Amino acid sequence: MKLYDYILSPSCYKVRLMAALTDVKLDIRPVDFHPGAEHRGAALMDLNPAGSIPILEDGDLILTESSAMLVYLAARAAPEWLGSGATEETARVQQWLSFSNRLTTSLGAARLHEMLLRPGDITELRSQGIAALREVEAGLVEQGLRGMRFLASDRPTVADIACFPYVALAPDGGVSLDPYPAIRLWSRALRSLENFIEMPGIHRLHELKPDPHIEPGGA
Amino acid sequence: MTHDAMIDEWYPVGLFSKLDAGGRKTALMGEPIDVARDAEGNARVTGGNGRPLPVCVRYGHVWSSLGAPQKALFAIPEADQAGRRFVDVGVVRVRCSPLRAVENFLDIAHFPFVHTDILGAEPHTEVQNYKVEIREDEVWATQVKFYQPQAAKSASGGITTEYMYRVPAPTCAVLYKTCPPRPSEWDVITLFVQPLAEDLCDVWPWMALFDDTTSLTDLIHFQQTIFLQDRSILENQIPRLLPLDPGMEIPTRADLTSVAYRRWLKRHDYTYGAQLVAQ
Lengths: 219, 279
Known about the structure:
The complex is a heterodimer of chains A (219) and B (279). By secondary structure, chain A is α+β, with helices and mostly antiparallel strands. Chain A has two domains: 79 residues, 3-Layer(aba) Sandwich (Glutaredoxin); 109 residues, Glutathione S-transferase Yfyf (Class Pi), Chain A, domain 2. Chain A is built from seven helices and four strands. A four-stranded mixed β-sheet of chain A has the order 2-1-3-4, with helices on one face. In chain A, helix 3 packs across helix 6 and helix 4 packs antiparallel against helix 5. The N and C termini of chain A lie far apart (62 Å). In chain B, the strands form four sheets. In chain B, strands 7, 8, 9, 10, 11, 12, 13 and 14 form an eight-stranded antiparallel β-sheet that branches. The longest helix of chain B has 19 residues. The model of chain B has no long low-confidence stretch (mean pLDDT 93). Chains A and B meet through helix 4 of A and helix 3 of B.
């Protein structure tokens, strides 16, 4: 299974992360996105007329949408990541998979503008990004009230992997995550998963520090 | 704005290979500038009021200055050495002082914590003694040694890497490091920083390596990975400007290069992006 990949792309990272979590081996083909703009070159445009990456190739199957790639990896290797199949949960997974595109076009575009000098109205992109972050925060709080830690279920699903990277990298575009405690807890829960991998800007969790020593009988 | 000695220095303002006739609108020390390729194929840089600015093309980049440079751009002899591959890594914008971007590049103590499992790893966190000196009015750090799990794309396992650092201009640093495929030579990795404002810069990494096997894209991605791990740290440093007066920070022995760099900046009145009085 071959992934046309850019190390700094959050959408490519979604696929690398999902593959790591489900123990699927990817054949990584690096694409010179910046500064080379190889994704706009003839060879890759033939493969994906949208001119975007990631592109996932497996035999005759060519996928150009990252959410579809997450679903493909999960269906192949670890179906529990698709959710339990319960009616509401299935709908929530689909809701967040589609919603994740709003994170890409707001926070993702703000990040490209601030980091790699791509054009865009930064004030507008940040406003849209903050609106999307508030929806994620509210969604996680409501899930918490239902006794669930993740976006669609009480276990992580493809929905979480679809939304996590652009949320976690919001500060790269100048959007702070300080106001969102539920997002920070969710991020911590995802980063604690076995076989989690990081990307530049998403740091691994520090080792848990030992408990502070408290003298008995004090105060 | 007070006159700053930095006004007469050369700064990178674009990749020569990416220039076109349409031009690139950017800025240098607060002034809007335009960088374009003219009909003869030469680089042309224009200041905010339409005046032509000094230009030179070297190390893959276009260089310019708002003032009158007193000397030619610093030399990197390795740039003319046969057999090296020259890598234009591309621009990354960072909301930090241009001087902080250089200082971070000179630091090794953060490797195990920020570039975990690539340029460093716990428990190998000790920075051994190294030498710092001023050589022909440049800051040099030599005999820097550090254990690295994956020192370069061409390194296959952990090695103790030797480094030399050199600061030939206030916003440029050149790193010489052990070259895994060719032990008698040094790999050259540079950080060229374009100061847009005192707290905003465009960073143009560039490399001159001996590595005949790794693809160009892999080399670019390796360097971008390292630099993007630094970016979020740089954007959160406080104070935003680099303090040149002691009082706020207590350096340790591992910070010798940084101390020499700050003293050198102060002595030359290179203060764009610096904080002069401790607050």
